[in-house]
Amino acid sequence: MCVAMSQSTKATGIKIISGGAFKQVLNALAEQYGNASGNKLDLTYRTVGQHLKLIESGEESFDVAVLTPDAIDGLIKDGKVVAGSRADLAKTGVGVVVGAGTPLPDIGSVDAFKRTLLAAKSVAYIDPAAGGSSGIYVGKLLERLGIAAQINAKAKLIHGGAVAEHIAAGEAEIGVHQISEILPVKGVVLVGPLPAEIQNFTIYSAGVATAAKDGATASALVKFLAGPGAVPFIKAKGMEPAS
Asked: Cα(13)–Cα(42) distance, rounded to whole angstroms?
């Protein structure tokens, strides 16, 4: 594997900010990149909304951002990301998770999914106010299905991190979150993806910061993340190529 890099950033590190759903893929690719280039990647994971707030306030800087396409496009408009540098990397769907050893509930249809959520003693998902892509979608989905009031009365809203970790800890009976964030957690089982009629895929895209310490190296890194060598890692971590 050949990874281009600039000597000026060697051993200084490249700062990448990313949404949580791309964490497992990026961790694996960062190791590959580091082994091939000798360059260290400094990785920071938060919800997309949390990253955007910190960037807007000036509290967070970065060389490369891995966020949703809308977020990257917004940063381009604001002059924070280089125009034309956006590359779509991968996408992930939303799934349902329960604790290991728990009988798997029926989510084979939209009606079955609704019945399962209504029957559960507690339901965990990302707090939409935290700016997580899945939380925003699930919150709107519950409203669309007409069960928001019932579910939110017993919901455990997660402000960041993996919903599945809270399921493993016994803090909620069932969870709804990005599949790529469910798979790596021990002590839980992925019941399956949401029914096709209500499934939602979140795309993750990369962009180069206008204030990157070394724009050439940051651009090369984005090409590496979007290249064919990344595809096996993307698929192995429960995601799919963006296109």
From this structure: 6
Pairing between β-strand 174-178 and β-strand 94-99 as defined by DSSP bridges: antiparallel
Angle between the N-to-C axes of helices 23-37 and 215-226, in degrees from 0 to 180, rounded to the nearest 10: 120
Total length of the chain: 243
Over residues 65-118, the pLDDT tens digits come to 999 999 999 999 999 999 999 999 999 999 999 999 999 999 999 999 999 999
234, 188: one domain:
no
In a domain, 35, yes or no: yes
Domain residue limits at 134:
94-198
The torsion angle over the Cα atoms of residues 81, 235, 25 and 19, rounded to 10 degrees, is 50
- Cut 0.85: pTM above it: no
Is residue 1 one of the residues assigned to a domain?
no
